[in-house]
Amino acid sequence: MLFTQIATLSLAVLTAAVPVEKRSNTCKFPTDQGLIAVTPSKSNGGWAMSPDQECTAGSYCPYACPAGQLMAQWDPSATGYSYPSSMNGGIKCEADGTLTKPMSDNDYCQDGEGTLKAKNTADKEVAFCQTVLPGNEAMLIPTKVKASTENDLAVPGPNYYAGTAAHYYVNSPGYSTKEACVWGDSSEPKGNWAPYVAGANMDDSGNTFVKIGWNPKYVEDFNNKTPSFGIRITCEDESKCNGLKCEIDPSNFNQISGSGSNSLGASYCVVTVQDKANAKIEVFSA
């Protein structure tokens, strides 16, 4: 009898000492807000997060907006670009599995400044993949530019999150956004290994700064492999643009035509587009 009581007591103590793990609630991606679903068949369920990452209770869950627009929700206490607050983009997932706008007066998405387009003169579609910021900064937000067409690229203004710019990975013609707007690996020149990168933002004076450059990861892992395409910055009114000519001729590996600079071992150039004038990042076949 005593042995049985001791055994029962020991089991009770052991049970009490081992916490029972409770499964967190998750929040479903809203399909009625005009958002762009990212890998909806994966665990992320459409959120602009890594494919194996769920939108769980207590977290901020970022999302992709249509071309030319920017995510307009993030942690309002994240006023500077610093980790870990820079990860807190999107809608707040509450403990009961409901979604809350952290900035209730904002819509889900907001228009960019409207001063930049992607122009594709190649014969196949091109994927411009924008990084998620605030968020994990993976290149998950898709903008498809069909052959011989143009599409808007989102340009943040000076009041956007922490004054940051929009960053894009420019993939080779022929890769779809579904194929290219993922992290990828060094086995193929796409995603984080796309040949080129680009960026844009506007300051208080109405100047848009447009940057194109070689992707440092491509330069590192695909050394001297010539891409099948080049990119350049063009302006409708060249008198409004400082820094032209700004072009990448792929036959000159890791070189820029015009006045360029270097960062992380990769060459780039920047054009300043004044007075809210318009510019384009043009993709052309080599």
TrEMBL record:
Annotated TM spans: none
Entries under InterPro entries matching the protein: Beta-glucosidase/SUN-like, SUN
One Pfam family in the UniProt entry: SUN
Signal peptide region: 1-17
Domain of life assignment: Eukaryota
Keywords: Signal
Entry similarity comment: Belongs to the SUN family.
Protein name: SUN-domain-containing protein
